[in-house]
Amino acid sequence: MLNKKVSPVYTIVAPTLDDCRRQLYDLHGTDYTITGHHTVPRGGFLGLFQRQCIEATYILNARQNPVQTVSTPDDFQRSRDELLRSAVDANPTQSLQIANLNKTVEELKKSLTSRLDTLATVTAAQANEKHPTIQKIEEILSDNEFTFSYINEISNRIREEFSYADLDNFDIVERRVVDWIGESIKIAPRLYRKLPHVIILVGPTGVGKTTTVAKIAANIILDARNEGKPPARVRMVTIDRTRVGAEEQLRRFGEIMNIDVDKAETADDVKKIFETYKDSLDALIIDSSGYSPNDYENIGKMRTMLNVKGLDADVYLTITASTKAKDLISIIQNYETFNFGSVIVTKCDETSAYGNVLSVLAEKHKSISYITDGQKVPRNIERASVVNFLTRLDGFRIDRIHIEDTFAEDK
Fold first, then answer.
1. DSSP-derived secondary structure for 177-224
2. Tell me: the pLDDT tens digits for 86-110?
3. What is the pLDDT of residues 208-264, one digit of tens each?
4. Model pTM?
C-alpha cells in the first residue's frame, strides 16, 4: 500500500482576501489552492493602533512535469521571498517606513553609545589624573593636619564648583577654599546670663584648666573696670581631687587677684557654696578634675557632683590645640555627658597646625569660645575668631582684608 503524500501548507497575510489572491498569483501563477482564511490583527506600536488583515492558508498544486519538481536556485530564492513576505505586513510603504525607522534607531544607538564611551573615558582620565590645583590644595591642608575626611570633602567640593578648565586658576580656588574653611569654623556667641554667671571647665588632665579658670576670672574683673562698672564680684571653686597642688595653684592666683577660692569634694559642698554666695556674686567659676577620656566611672561621678539644682552653668570643654583628631573625637564623645556648650582651645602657642581641631569640631558641630596661647594671667587668652584661625594657617596666601570683611562678625 502506498502512502499518500501530504502537501505542505503555507500562509500569506494581506489587507483583503483579494489582495492575498493577487500576491499568490504573482508568486505562483495558478499553481496554488487557498485552503482557508481568517482575520488577524497587524501593525501598531506597543499593541496600539492595530488594524485587521486577512491571513490565508494555501497549498501548491502538484506539477505535471516531474523535472520541474527539482529544486533550483530560483526555487530557493522564491521560497525565501515567500517566507519574508508572509512575516511582514502586506503594506509595502509601511514596511519600508518601519525598516527605515529601525535603521535610524540602530544608528542613534551606536552614536550615543560611542559618545557615552568617549565621555566615560574622559571622565575616568580626569578622575585618575588629579588636577595639580587639587593636589596642591590637598597638600597644604595635609600640612595643616586637617583630617582625611575633611580634605576629601574640600576636594569633592572643588570638583563640584569648578570646571576642569577653571582649576588652572589656582589663586581663585585657593581663596574659595580659605572661605570654606572659615565657614566651617563655628564661633560661640557671647553669653549674658542672670547673676551669678556660673562657669565650669571640664576636660582631660594636662590641658591647662586651672590656669584658664584664673584667666577667665581676671578678665571678668578687667572688663568691668574698663567699662566703668562697679568691681566684679568673682569667686573660684576647685573640685580637683586628682592633681597634686591644684588647690594651691588656684589659691595663689586668687591671692594675686584678690579673689576668694573654695574647695568642694561632694555635690553637697558645691550646693552649699552656690546657695551661700549666689546673691552676692557676679561670677562663680569652677575648676574640675582632669580624667582620661576613657575613665567613664570618674567622669560620671564628677557629672553627678556638678548636678546641682539651680546652678544653670555654662560648661566649656577644654582641649589643647595639638590634640590628635582621633583622641579629640573620643574626648568629645565621653565628655558629652556634661552637655558642654562650646570649647576652649588651649596651648595654641605650642603648635602651628590647627587642622586637626578645626576638622573634628566642624564634623561634630561644636563651637569655640576662647583660645589661649601662654601661661600669663590675665593675658594669653582671647575670644576665638574665624579671622584668627585663618591667619594661623600655613601655606595659604591669606587676603586679610577679604576675610575680615567676610567674617567681620567674629572679629
1. HHHHHHHHPPBPPP---SSSEEEEEE--TTS-HHHHHHHHHHHHHHHH
2. 544 445 555 555 566 666 657 666 6
3. 999 999 999 999 999 999 889 998 999 999 988 777 677 888 999 999 999 999 999
4. 0.67
- For Cα atoms 408, 161, 386, give the angle at the middle one, nearest 5 degrees: 20
Question: What pLDDT is stored for residue 68 in this prediction?
Answer: 41
Residues constituting the chain: 411
| Measured CA distances, 42 to 11, 50, 89, 90, 356 (Å) | 15, 6, 7, 10, 72
Query: Which residue type does 171 have?
Result: D
Q: Residue 172 is placed in which grid cell?
A: 581663585
Rounded Cα distance between 264 and 267, Å, is: 8
List Cα–Cα distances, 396 to 121, 131, 155, 186, in angstroms: 34, 18, 16, 20
Cα gap 117→382, rounded to integer Å: 57
Mind giving me the DSSP string for 246-285? HHHHHHHHHHHHT-EEEE--SHHHHHHHHHHHTTS-SEEE
| Contact present, 205 and 246 (Cβ < 8 Å) | no
Judging by DSSP bridges, how do beta strands 10-14 and 32-42 pair with one another?
A: unpaired
207, 212, 270, 210: which is closest to 245 by C-alpha? 210
Contacts of 241 (CB under 8 A, 6+ apart): 265, 289
